[in-house]
């Protein structure tokens, strides 16, 4: 057991200062991922800076009519929030599929967004891993890669982002509020997460000690209310996704007027399928139309022998969700 210091600052500003002054310190919120990584020896912080009680933990309406979700809100509470269930069902469904009840009771919104990959090689300190030890290699490419990425990956890393909630937020065009020693800023999900490129050690663009303080959702609309999350996993009970989709659609006069598609378990970040979205707008919604659209998205996929099925799985999941949301019957499917 490695020893570490525990610090409980009185304010968020003090927490920022703690991390700015100690490169060996990390933040602790729910701890549902960090503590596991410490037990495995993957994370070896010199100090834990406790954020519990320091982060916003309420859900409030914004001036624009959307929701501002504090980073300290527990996943269970957010999933049960009446406004989320009514106006953003895709988010509630993603949260409820994301973990066991016990974990959801502990996990926070901010921590959920920052959880690390579940790649077996990353979690096993006896194996090489470029994300954990730069330059050591990515044995997953020739080894066990069934659960790993096909989009946005590189020769250095094919790990996937494990968050269900983040996939839903990508489909909702959520904005992430950040606070750091250099001030506050707002970023999209695409701006928050990094693709691995030749440096897979950093998952996000966060600066040293920078904090997620809130997640902002746009004003509810017909599109956000007509949304859903679908997850494929190896067992019905708590398990990480093999494939997932968060989608929303509006159909007018038989044609798609607006659509959002975000894919999970296929990339180092929630993958907003903008190519597929563009292909569907103005088209009649049907099984083959959706499959063709997702196939266009997958033209840039890098498929390996054991994860190539994810391209087809993603298309099937997306088609199922969109067609159900549109209320099409069996013949129209």
Please specify the SSE layout and strand pairing.
Layout: E1 5-7, H1 12-21, E2 25-28, H2 34-40, E3 47-50, E4 59-61, E5 67-70, H3 75-80, H4 82-87, H5 89-97, H6 101-106, H7 109-113, H8 120-123, H9 164-171, E6 175-180, E7 183-188, H10 189-192, E8 211-217, H11 222-225, E9 227-232, E10 243-252, E11 255-264, E12 271-272, H12 274-280, H13 287-297, H14 309-326
Parallel strand pairs: 1-3, 2-3
Antiparallel strand pairs: 4-5, 5-8, 6-7, 6-8, 9-10, 10-11, 11-12
Largest sheet, strands/sense/barrel: 5 strands, antiparallel
Count of strand segments:
12
Along the chain, the helix and strand elements come as EHEHEEEHHHHHHHEEHEHEEEEHHH
Indicate the mean pLDDT: 95
* Percent in helix: 25-40%
Strand order of the largest sheet: 4-5-8-6-7
Segments where pLDDT lies below 50 for 5+ residues?
Answer: none
- Strand content is 15-25%
Figure out the total of helices: 14
Give the terminus-to-terminus CA distance: 56 Å
Explain how this protein is built.
Strands 4-5-8-6-7 form a 5-stranded antiparallel beta sheet. The radius of gyration is 20 Å and the shape is globular. It contains 14 helices and 12 strands. By secondary structure, it is α+β, with helices and mostly antiparallel strands. The longest helix has 18 residues. 32% of the residues lie in helices and 20% in strands. Strand 4 and strand 5 form a beta hairpin.
Task: Based on the model shown, name its key terms.
four-stranded antiparallel sheet; about 325 residues; 14 helices
Question: What's a concise summary of this model?
Answer:
With 333 residues, the chain is an alpha+beta fold.
